[in-house]
Amino acid sequence: MADGVKPRVKAPKSAAAGESVTLKTLISHPMESGQRKDGDGNIIPRSIINRFTCDFNGQNVIDITLEPAISTNPYFEFDATIPEAGDLKFTWYDDDGSVYEDTKSVAIG
Amino acid sequence: MKFTALTAVAALLMAPAAYAEADDESLVINGDLEITTHTDAPAHLDGHLDEIYSGWHFRDDETQAMEADDFDNPAMIFVDQARDMWTTPEGSEGKSCADCHGAPEDMAAVRPVYPKWNEDAGEVRTMQMQMNDCRTNRMGADAWKTDAKDALNMEALMSSVARGQPVNVAIDGPAQSVWEQGKELYYTRTGILDLSCASCHEENYGNRIRSDHLSQGQINGFPAYRLKNAGLNGVQGRFKGCVRDTRAETFSPGSPEFIALELYVASRGNGLSVEGPSVRN
Question: Which Pfam families match (chain A) (predicted)?
Fold first, then answer.
């Protein structure tokens, strides 16, 4: 797992049933290319996020493929319709097998 | 940008005043923190500038908007990293910043008054020099290089907790001679292009150079997150870039010349709000 990885999500705490809300996500991640060497000449292993998903109560909202040219600290902003109270689950998948997760609960009201 | 077709025609017909292209929008961060990005120039700029503008005014609407919300401001990643470092003990004394200084928010009065004269050391110190004094003398840790990643992160944290307060750098008393040296440097033309800081940032702000919109060169927004290199940039590193662009041999970040220049340039922004970490192109 790369150093300094921290997922951040901005989602409303509550929404009206059926309301479309804006979700913002940002994950700090260095996107190590696998071609750099450290001070001792050893190759720093590749670590690039290749997929981002958002699920609401187990139902997929968005599924994004990230190609290797993705920038460091990628930011995604998208809208989702909230039909009922539940949990938004955000997942980032790393080339090196790491999975980074964050969850936000949304209430109806 | 409030630039209607009518004013566009007017701008073509007459030579616009130098500040014509600084827009008239206002910056509110997180919906409640009002930032003074435009105000009357401090008294020592009499005869040079009437009004001072933050570099924020000279950026595109999209770039400006990134700074209005901490979630959208990519520099906040580095502020978060500094927050973690704030409470992490380092060095032979096993102390962290928090052990002496409490919460970062308790340090809100620091950023607006730096660079500042240090009586004990008998020198003008930038915030990074003062941090290194803490690190070497109180923590027993290694000093950071000027504008090193960790130093910039910590500077960004100090700046973020001070946002909204007016820059208020002292230019009289013992700091005056250093300030005068900085002023001298500011107005000295250098390089093959024979440009001083003032050639661009005082006489031509609002115009374009190198396909970029010239600001007044205010440093109230530093450290600045630049979209071009996706990281924090320090004041003295920016000075170096500017001097290099005049095609001169530059001073080094951390040199006495750049410390003096940082004090002088900071004083040109007395009255603007601390805005860093800002977002620039």
Answer: SoxZ (PF08770)
